[in-house]
Amino acid sequence: MDWLAAVLLRLTQLGPWGPVLFVLIYIAAAVTLAPAFLLTVAAGALFGVWRGTLFVFVGAVLGASAAYAVSTRLTRLPFLAWLDRDPRVLIVRRAVAGEGAWVQFLLRLSPLVPFNLLNFALGVSHVPYRDFLIASIGMLPTIVLYTYYGKVVGDVAAIAAGIAPPRGTEYYVLLTVGLVTTIIASTMIARAARRAIDAQKRSTATS
């Protein structure tokens, strides 16, 4: 990770282009499934809490949107076309889409749900992009917390080397909230999936 630390440190010497390149790196990380956590924490060390939060949020939203665009097209490839024909996938897709932006917001709010994987999972589920975008607001609490930790460490090289930021009360509060929201979101999806299954059974019985 030394090369990444060197690249990130270089950003501070590029003036107004530094944040632009940071956002581009974040977008690339989101699309390639690279760990975005490191970049989020490093942003706090590089830019401070509030500027770091802004740059990370912009990069995360654009990166998530890019991953969404890629994943929605992946299911059109021949070797993945079966996803669109599998009734189980269709049921889950209807369940997530049926709950609108709310269930996606809860999943975004949880630090327990990986950012990169969720982007692709929602894209494959073909949820409406409008809901996908609105739910991105749920990323803010985690972003603020991790950029704050990066500011506390203050050393990008140490962060890249794997030095764990100190975890205070706010970390465990967010973790608890994340666990609760994950459970709620999972329950909502399960209930919506059950309704979709029942509706499909009724449709089959009447046809």
Please provide a written account of the structure.
The protein has 207 residues and is mostly helical. Helices cover 79% and strands 0% of the residues. The chain contains 12 helices and no strands. It has helices at 2-11, 17-32, 36-47, 49-74, 82-85, 87-98, 100-109, 115-124, 129-134, 140-153, 156-160, 169-206.
Count of the domains: 1
The termini sit apart by 59 Å
Class by SSE composition = mainly alpha
Helix and strand string, N-terminal first? Answer: HHHHHHHHHHHH
What portion of residues is helical? over 70%
- Any idea what the shape is? globular
Rounded average pLDDT: 75
How much is the radius of gyration in Å? 19 Å
Task: Name its key features.
207 residues, mainly alpha, globular
Task: Quickly describe the structure.
The protein has one domain. It is 79% helix and 0% strand.
SSE blueprint and pairings:
Layout: H1 2-11, H2 17-32, H3 36-47, H4 49-74, H5 82-85, H6 87-98, H7 100-109, H8 115-124, H9 129-134, H10 140-153, H11 156-160, H12 169-206
Helix pairs in contact: 2-4, 3-4, 3-10, 4-8, 4-10, 6-12, 7-12
